[in-house]
Every structure is written in C-alpha cells, then in structure tokens.
Specification:
Elements (H helix, E strand, L loop, with lengths): L7 H26 L3 H21 L3 H22 L4 H22 L7 H5 L8 H30 L1 H6 L4 H42 L3 H26 L3 H29 L1
Helix pairs in contact: 1-6, 1-8, 1-9, 2-3, 2-4, 2-8, 3-4, 3-8, 6-8, 8-9, 8-10, 9-10
C-alpha cells in the first residue's frame, strides 16, 4: 500500500501534504478560537482574484493569491473592528468582488485555457520542489509568529478586554492573526482547493478541541490529525483514481463521524457503569 510513495510526484505530494497539514492545524486553531471561520472563507474566495491577477500579468500564482489574501484580510480586520455590526455584509461584498475580478481577468488573458478544477479542488499531485520550499517558508513564518507572540495571541483570542487592559494592541494582533492566517489559507488551497479549504481548517481542529485543554495542544493535535487524514486521502485517491482534495476532505469527515461515534459510546458506557 505504501509503495505508492516511491513515485516522485507522490513523494512531493506527501511532503507537501504534511507541511500544509501542520500549517492548517495552527491556522485553523487560531481561526476557530477567534471565531473567524466566516472571515477565513471570505479571504479564501477573495484570493481567487489574486489567481486571476497572477495569470493575467504572468506572475507566480502563489504571489498573486497571497497579495489579494493579505489585502483582503487587512481590510476585513479593519471593517470588523470599525463596523462590527455590518461586517457580514462587507465580507460578502469583498468575497464576491474578489472572485468576480479573478474570473474576468482569466477571461481577458489571451490564449489561456485555465483548469478551474485545480484551483477549486486543489492540485497537490502537481506540487514541485520549489513549492515545498515555499510551504516550508510559510510554516516557518507562522511558527515564529506563534512562538514569540503566543501569550499575546492567547490573551487576544480568549479575552480581548483583558488583553486591552494589559496594554496589548488588540486591533494590531487581531489584524496580524488574520494576515498570517490568509497566507496559510493560500497554502492550504494548494492541497484541497478554494471550495474545500475551510473544511481542512476546521474538521481536525474540531476533533483536537475535544481532546486538548490548551491552544498549543489544539494546534499540535489538529496538525497531526490533519496529516493523518491527508496521508490516508492521498492513498485512497491514488488507488481509486479520485480527486485528491475532495478525497482528503471526505476522509476527514468520515474520521470526524467515527470520532464522535466512539466518544458517544464511551460516554454511554461511563453512564451505565
């Protein structure tokens, strides 16, 4: 079964999948505890405008998507802080505008026949060595941010009023969390695509939250759980010739259902005993 990982492109896919799983575990935890899931969805879809921008101007896809994602996250952070009661309207507007820009720019690119499936559902099997180095760079940035800013991140995530009293610039850290998350989201899109990215960021975190009592524990567990689902998904998709991103998410959903079922059975057993 594991002989599939002796193939070069599958080795790259495996390495990329593990790196992105660690990224999504950290970023997903930050998104969930800060109640940013809807914001993260908006950032992911807005970044499609960056994909169109990169294709139109002949730039690297990651660069274009990242620029749009960072700009969108900064704008959403500002609007969330300034106009909290109307933020859902603004996010929907930014979301739609980003995707519309992406579609139009791709349409205007002469002679470009885009494979939308690779952006919507991921293209992990097409990962190259250069992509892996980029992913490692993004993971390093995220780790540095979390390690050196952990106490402040913890305070802002769980009690922003207490963080403000302590003298922490809550608005700045909130924006930084969103900006860092946006880069992680773009990386995760490489594995499961734009449509399924939120599932990869939230399903492992949902399970990790049940078995962890701290934010750092949640990040570690969700990263490991995500890596496990990704490896199983890669194996299943390869053996049955299925779309890899969608298979990884389906494996994650099945894993979550099994976890909840086992948890319920243990709870029932404890009640009986």
């Amino acid at each position: 079964m594991f002989e599939i990982f002796t193939v070069d492109f599958m080795q790259n896919a495996l390495i990329a999948g593990i790196i992105v799983s660690l990224i999504s575990g950290i970023i997903g935890s930050l998104i969930v505890v800060n109640r940013m899931v809807f914001l993260a969805g908006g950032i992911a879809h807005t970044s499609y405008g960056g994909i169109g921008f990169a294709i139109f101007f002949g730039l690297p896809i990651f660069l274009g998507a990242s620029l749009f994602a960072v700009a969108a996250s900064a704008l959403m952070a500002f609007l969330t802080i300034k106009y909290k009661e109307r933020v859902d309207t603004f996010i929907g507007l930014i979301w739609a505008t980003g995707m519309a820009i992406g579609v139009i720019l791709i349409d205007l690119t002469p002679g470009y026949n885009v494979d939308l499936m690779s952006y919507l559902f991921g293209s992990i099997l097409a990962v190259e060595t250069a992509d892996i180095y980029t992913m490692l760079g993004v993971l390093s940035i995220i780790l540095i941010f979390v390690i050196f800013g952990y106490r402040n991140i913890l305070a802002v995530s769980y009690d922003s009023e207490y963080a403000h009293i302590r003298g922490i610039n809550v608005g700045l850290f909130y924006t930084l969390i969103l900006v860092i998350s946006s880069i992680g989201i773009v990386m995760t899109m490489k594995v499961v695509g734009l449509i399924l990215v939120i599932s990869m960021l939230t399903i492992p975190v949902f399970i990790a939250e049940k078995i962890s009592s701290s934010l750092i524990g949640m990040m570690i567990y969700s990263g490991l759980i995500s890596a496990f689902f990704t490896i199983i998904g890669l194996m299943v998709s390869y053996n049955y010739n299925l779309t890899t991103g969608a298979t990884i998410i389906l494996v994650s959903v099945i894993g979550m259902i099994l976890f909840l079922t086992i948890q319920k059975l243990f709870d029932l057993k404890n009640r009986i005993l």
